Amino acid sequence: MTNKQLKELLDSLTLKEKIGQMFQALPQIFGEDGAITGIFDENIEVDDVISTVGSILNMYDTERMRKLQAQHLESSKIPLLFMNDIIHGFNTVFPISPALAATFNPELIKKTARISAKESAALGINVTFSPMVDISRDARWGRVCEGYGEDTYLSSICSKAMIEGYQGDSLESDDTIAACVKHFALYGAPYDGRDYNNVDMSERMMRNDYLPPYKAAVDANVAMIMTAFNNINGTPATINHHTNVDILRDEWGFDGVSITDYGSAKMCYNAGVVENHTETAQLLIENKVDIDMMGGIYGMKYLGKAVESGAVSIEQIDECVMRILELKNKLGLFENPYKYFRGSESIPESERKNHREVARKSVSESSTLVKNENELLPIAKDKKVAFIGPFVASNDLTTHWAQIHDKREIGLYINEAVNSFTDLKGEYSYSIGCPYLSDDEELLEKPESPCENDVQQYEKQAIENAKNADTVVMLMGEPHQLFGESGSRTEITIPEIQMELLRKISKVNENIVVILFNGRPLVLSELSKLAKSIIVSWYPGSQGYLGICDMLFGYTSPSGRLPFSFPRKNGQVPLFYSNIATGHDHEEGQFNKFTLRYIDTPNTPLYPFGYGLSYTEFKYSNPSISSSTLKRGESISVSVDIENIGKRDGYETAQLYIRDVKAKLVARPLKQLKGFEKVFLKSGEKKTVTFEITEEMLKFYDKDCNFVAENGEFIIYVGAHSMDNRNSVKFELI
Ligand code: GLC
Fold it and tell me: Does pTM top 0.90 for this prediction?
């Protein structure tokens, strides 16, 4: 439709029809099945909803969706939108977001989103509530498992890659979907790590560290944005005019659709910041929030009343509804409301096979080898290997977002994966050893224990198998019930019952490899002493065990780099590498009482942001800079040589960090990631990696929140991770 036709359509609607477009309903309201991802208020205020509702969330059945569309169009001129949480894959499930960030490979990240879009569009989905780009530096928070890590630059790169993958070149295509970046804003910074809790943050910290990934989404033409559950400096993000209008609409020029998170509009009243829901309706409109997801605020009872009282004008309503109509128009739904209902089976098996290959490749690119003593890994193909741990009993290395529907491909069990390698000549045993959690864990949701009855029997078998093996591979970590929405923890550790098993195994066999399944950074201090090799695999998706075997037996090498700092102790959290300088800064190794430190733990993480090993070894040398001064508007370059001095080919991710040594009256971070390059080097090969340095990279929000680069000295570090200071050069901005 042309804009003129859209305007005519808008003008032809009644107030009830207009307000209906602004309501998003669960399928259950129409007696249909779907995933319930929040509190389902059965008394929610809905008008004659089937003929007026604008969109449905989290329905997963093509034929039922088609029927609902047809039923709706019997009494409406405007097709429904179907929006779902496609977070890290759909039929093909990829590693979770922090793992994708760990690939430091934007092209691969984009490819996973492209595949997710193809698969979900075929089912009938038009919009995904992804990417989630909330920066978080507090691993107690349950939803770090959905974001792209602690770093602003890396998260911004991932935000852009995911949106480009989902939205492709045009939303008109029938294999692209609209992306909805979330949760706007600062959801990952609750002041005590508990999900939904308040966020208090200075304007400068917000703009320097937490907002850029959302801005990267807007710059990538993201179609939608979702407001967050938390308060920002006291005001709910859903009705926070400063973020929703001053910054998002006026400063950034976002003209897409804004939607509330599930029921968050109704929750404003609970926060005690409004008199009633009618006031909320008015504030939502003033915040230019277009769709109310299951809040029941955008209905005749509240929004209709606000219009009646004159608190809200028809023009304000029309502005919101027009943005919704424009999105439906971009998707081509007016021309053909049924274009997306082709069904998953419409994707040929040859394409699905390629999707699985991408998912399998992403396992080794996203897994991070953090320890490999005496090159215990890779394991020779003729060794006796004992696979031990509760994850021996699992073939589903996906998480709750993939598990809210039954369309995902379930992977292989570890034994099935091992058996699929025809050239493995070793002896392999499999024992569960212990449950994921001990019985006395008080959790709302607990994983089913893989141990029936006598747990001792499982432990005895595991110890026996370990005694008879050359190498033990422990498959352990966090069951996904320990993270995710409302999944915050006070102790970010591996469940004690699993650690008890590991201690016993380590007494009978010292050659221990740990494959860690985790949704957040964990405290691995004890584990790092008991295992010779450790691979952090997060949740690697539906090709998980095949990808893990690829690494274990040397077909591939893990090449991930940590997107989070991994603490030594719980008490270090929140923990992140880009600490802001203080007057008491502490030099590691120097002993001085009056410096920034804990008395019982080093300041440093156990494993730093950007850290990761490989099956080979890389040497950095010859750092050089093209000029010691950078003139405004010009650029200089920094180069470093990287040589593969090991016996195997492999990937290395060179990382560029910059420190702004001095700024007027505001302290700056000790270093910030400003670039990276993942290079593949054959054994013995050397490459020169070069980074361009520009004035734009040096800009920050200064004391008065002006976005500037100040003259003065900068230090550049190019290395293997955020604590690698071996190769540094200086320059001056003049
Ligand atoms: C949930 C989540 C949000 C999700 C939405 C729809 O509460 O906070 O991330 O997209 O509801 O399922």
Answer: yes
